[in-house]
Amino acid sequence: MMKIFRTYNLYRFVEDYLAHSIFPNKDSWRNIVVEAINTHKIKEWRAQLLRKPGLLVNILCGNIPDLVFRAVVDCNTFYSCKLCNRNLGDISYHFIMDCSALFFERNML
Q1: How far apart are CA 24 and CA 83, in angstroms?
Q2: HSE value, Cβ hemisphere, 13 Å, CA-based, for 107
């Protein structure tokens, strides 16, 4: 359990609880944990992109792979992702950072 707290930088809440018997309420704790996990995953993703920058460079230069375009529906004023059914404004950002259907693929990079 302590390893998880350290991994997601939540150890200070345990220290506060042990020292002062103060701990956030359930809703606040949930929000804190979700934010900590998201922050950790973003840092991890960025570190992986630094080790393998090819995909990111291609997408940022406009060389969006055909596979990505096959997963997008053009709805005139916005795009829609066929994989996760979300409306998109920025195709590149969505597939690099947001698409829930590509979570495992992003982690493989």
Answers
A1: 36
A2: 7
Parent domain of 62: 54-109
pTM, whole model, 2 decimals?
0.47
User: pLDDT tens digits, residue range 5-55?
Assistant: 888 889 888 888 889 988 899 999 999 998 888 888 877 766 766 666 565
Residues 60 and 30 grouped into a single domain: no
CB 48 within 8 Å of CB 109: yes
Residues 84 and 34 in one domain: no
Residue 52 confidence (pLDDT): 62
State the DSSP H helix or E strand holding residue 31, giving kind and residue range, or none if neither: helix 26-51
